[in-house]
Amino acid sequence: MRQGVGSHLRRNLIVLAVVSVAYLLLTLFVSNSYYQLILTLVPVWALFGVSWNILSGYGGQLSFGHASFFGIGAYTVTLALVYWNLSPWLGIPLGMVLGGLAAILIGLPTFRLRGHYFALSMLAYPLAILYVMQYLGFQEVSMPMHRESPLAYMEFAEPRVYTLIAVLLLVGGVVVSLFIESSRFGLALLAIRQNELAAEAAGIDARSEKMRSLIVSGMMGAVAGGFYARVLLVVTPESVFGMLVSAQAVVVTLFGGVASVWGPVIGAAILVPLAETLQAELGTYLPGIQGVVYGVAIIAVMLLSPDGLYWTIRDRWLRRDASQGVSDVQSDVAAAAVDGKPPAPIRPVAHASGPLLQVEGLSRAFGGLRAVSEVSFSIAEGEILGIIGPNGAGKTTLFNVLNGVLSADEGSARLDGQPMLGRKTHEVCRMGVGRTFQVVRSFPRLPVLDNVIVGAYGAGASDHEAITRAVRALRQVGLQDRAEVAAGQLTNKQLRLMELARALAGSPRLLLLDETLAGLGREECDDVLGVLARLREQGMTICIIEHTMHAMMRLADRFVVLDHGRVLATGLPRLVVEDASVIEAYLGKKWLARREA
Amino acid sequence: MDLEILVENVLNAVTAGITIGCIYGLMCIGLGLIFGIMRIVNFAQGELLMLGMFVSFYLVSEGRILSALGPYWGPFIGAMCAAPAIFAGGALLHRFLISRVSGLRTVGSLDEGHFGQLIVTLGISLILQNGGQILFGSTPVAVRTPLSSEAFLIGPLYHGATVFLNKAKLVAFFVAVLAAVALYVTLEYTRLGKALRAAADNPTAATYMGIDVDRAYRIAFGLGSGITAVAGGLMATYISFTPFVGFDYVIIMYSGVVLGGMGSIFGAFWGGVTVGFVQQFSALILPPQLQNAAIFVVFLMIVLLRPQGLFGRSAERA
Fold first, then answer.
1. Model ipTM?
2. Model pTM score
3. Dihedral sign computed on CA atoms, order A486, A490, A495, A501
């Protein structure tokens, strides 16, 4: 478990226990069988929302096809009972397993897609299954009753028992979700949602984390569907694979609050009774009223409080609660600081001779444009290499090829003799290459400390070690006072430093810094240069792209000049800036002529 | 299978593929236009199609304004009349809902506002679909024209095979092609078209050039809605429909747009034609319930194997 969230988790578990007991007490006072059914359906849809939230809320992978899992659960329970006489007590776990398998089958191809494409493809799965179910003749399957041994088949005369089971299932789902929220897995998902490329550059294997979230989500969705079938006793393809089912998960979660475990619970508790009651009261005159209510609800939420009720209420009325969370983090920072060893020098084991990074003949083209062309250079351990060149010279492309964001067409790059090319971004990070971006890629809604912890996790640190490393990295860049602030509130300079700290938290052997000084004023520049100079004293090897010549002259040991993707010159800063071809590339021929005249 | 029957079936699938495909093409242009210009995936496009069908239905059925035009002309004129009505509806939807989660407002925000757009259009879809059920009821209806039960017979051709050309589909096909050409001319050669394309290319830069991007988007959304509604009106002459019909076609639209390369407006037309072909040919080998499943499978294959579309050269890098 991540530190700083322990008390948060405890508090949430207490709330969960209180709410569940209160809800069960409420059922004692309800005797109308229709309202009892609604009371059973609220936790079922809440559970389905919680499952959607794990994939789409935390991980940000918007799915409009969650009915796949719901329907698989429902049909597994029903068909297993009809054909194999398998009790729902076993059918629901079986559905859960199948839901997880379906998640793997769906995830393997679909996670190759992002954004729109992912959302649309997810939509197609339940609809395709729906038609197949119709074709197979499972138009309407009812569950046979087993009056001789009702308990063994999850049959109860007392409808409140169903509500009890539903609540217990929901409690299970919420607990799983709470543990995810407070684990490194949850933090990785949040990071992926906010900036996938940055998460990968910080060492997170985005694809496998997303896959894990889909599997957990699919299993949970199948449980919700399986129990739903047991409660309603009849399944049809439309009622479990239909669009309204997928929409229900989206709607209750968004309405209640996305990326919080309480969101779907709040959303279901309000919307399900509302829509069901309207349907019962007005359904004869206004047959589609339920769908209209859902539609209005999500549009209203999207326009008025896009993150959902939970966050709006929390932001508006529960400020104190929020500051409570902050002090937790602070105490953790303090705790880590106490047992933190003095900022250990990064200086790694002494290595055999040879440069730390050796790049040879590296090329990368976009269509006919050779963005990087036969670039060779090397960086020695402890050296600061400045990469300079006019706009469009291929500097950022070079970094992207080096850390696996882009593939290389030709050439090789070795880190301490190990080939770097052909690896994925997070693998390059785990080899010990930290990276910052030209435009800062932060996780704006996470606190600074969590932003940096992501970097430590990415490099494979344990929970305790991660926070120690993160605090140390924040010290190294001088941001320890801002640890608990959301990254979105930082100034440009602080963001740059935070990104640097995130890279440092992975204990890299080589830092690739892409225009770390861009957009900073002179004093801010000096601050950042000071930080970099201190890193150098600790033995860090840095490769930095920069435009600001005077800053680079002070910082870099050696320059590599790129122009039109080629290496124009290499060498000591003083010599390079005197080089005629470099001046020409930067300032043009005229300038050169005037100077020589 | 008998060679004669096989030849006949294939020839009929080809002609049906062309006629239905072009109508699908028109339908896909609507979605493609909205995506191409505004980068919004409109979830409610199927419901706009449905509205087009019902507008046409209410205009031309017994005792309504256009019923005087008779069963031959009426349905097709009714379909064309759906365009201005749904254009206005689409523009209003944009004015009051879509514009608040799209356009310049969301440029550079966390996911460019995609999350909000998908959700708001999903909400619109739910409201229109279920609201439609309240307004129109859920009994299937159809725009009646004698043409839908008449056909031109071509043949006997090779081995005595005869091709049946349904007259309603044939007229609908011509109207669809005309509408697509008219839209093409508008977008390529008029000032409005240039403004729309500029707003699509780079909304911020277009603003600096004095283009009212918000208005351009409103027009684009209206146009996209209206075009799909015309296709709906045309289809209403040969299928029966309920307020939930949009659902059956929304995936066809997505498939067409993705096939054509997301972002390419007229690529969407060819995408739609392709989907029409796939559907008609799958009818030769698959039972009817699985034809829609076949389209989903094709859709998934395209998205997974060639997300830049069959006709597109490049799309946004995944």
1. 0.85
2. 0.86
3. negative
